[in-house]
Amino acid sequence: MARINEHYRKLQAGYLFPEISRRVAAFGSANPNAPIIRLGIGDVTLPLAPAVVEALHAAVDEMASAEGFRGYGPENGYDFLLDAIREHDFASRGVSIEPNEIFVSDGSKQDSGNIQEIFGTDCTLLVTDPVYPVYVDTNVMAGRTGDGDENGRYAGIRYLPATEENGFTPPPPSDRVDLAYLCSPNNPTGAVMDRAGLTAWVDWARANDAILIFDAAYDAFIQDPALPRSIYEIEGARDCAIEMRSFSKRAGFTGVRCAYTVIPAECSGTTASGERVPLRELWARRHATKFNSVPYVIQRAAAAVFSSDGRKQTAEQVSFYMENARRVRQGLGDAGFTVFAGEHAPYIWMRTPDGLSSWEFFDRLLNETNVVGTPGSGFGPSGEGYFRISAFNSRENVDEAVTRIRDAFGS
Ligand code: MLT
After folding, report:
1. Model confidence band, residue 13 (pLDDT cutoffs 50, 70, 90)
2. 39, 71, 289, 333 - which has most CB atoms within 10 Å?
3. Structural domains of the chain, ranges and CATH numbers in brackets
4. Residue with the nearest Cα to atom 5 of ligand 1?
């Protein structure tokens, strides 16, 4: 008899977004003519940028010729993409990252979920709360936690509440843990960490020999050039931080799939006997064993994001979504809602009206306005009483959703 991994049984019944889809599908079947507007999952809606499409076509044509055909690629990514990442995402901001510190992958969801595999099962963990559920669930699956309580908090995970009082960017704790997950711009709260905030975390990690797992999947949405985009813009971060970046939201790749993780040479952990081991070596070993890299055509498409046309076209896409975010923020703010974020992230975080719980508001919004959002409590107990609205949709739908929400719930 094959025993199952019983840690899976500790998980909440379903992952958040499938649960939302289930409720929306049930509503849609019962109300087939309802004009549903989806501002729930943060999924891009604009078509791929022309420079990306051109690169995809050209790469397919290459693969169709005997000379241009490629089979397995280098595990960590083709040099043309590693070089483009190094130059445009790091060197352009004064950060030095070597190509052999970059690992191209098929998504930051996977990377942020898989990275825990290279750490001991007895490592202590910290997340900010509310939190992207992948960080928590993958550690539960790996047996690094105890059971969940009635609020969805797992024993063995340290939750740092992200609240209105701390601007949804909690400072580091006064004691130590081994691994801390940070996400900035934050999913779900949309809050962004400034230089001082990130420096406090880097200093804490170095003082405590901790590792920061820094998810920067939304860095392209930062509007203020003075705000750090990469944790490596902070002195000392090379010693203690792993960073994840994605093409999903910045360039419409949610269905194309390309991302990368950076592990600097200096970043290390210890064995039980105290020997220091570079984390990069462990991740490289994992990558080589469990992954055969991203398809050549997709890596060509990702590299095209850094071409001069690609940069311009994808920046226009980001601006389009950020204008949506501005309209949601302003429209709902003017209607009397308490709204946050949406300035450096494609998410608006709002208080639910009339003291409704997050799921109560979700259900009422769906039923009364046919608008779908994401209940804050789905991201953790401190999200209760909050709600996330995504800016990824057409202008018409976003404006229409704001009007409907205002008319149904505004003051
Ligand atoms: C979200 O809506 O939180 C994201 O789309 C989830 C993801 O990127 O996996």
Report:
1. low
2. 39
3. 12-47+309-409 (3.90.1150.10), 52-307 (3.40.640.10)
4. 42
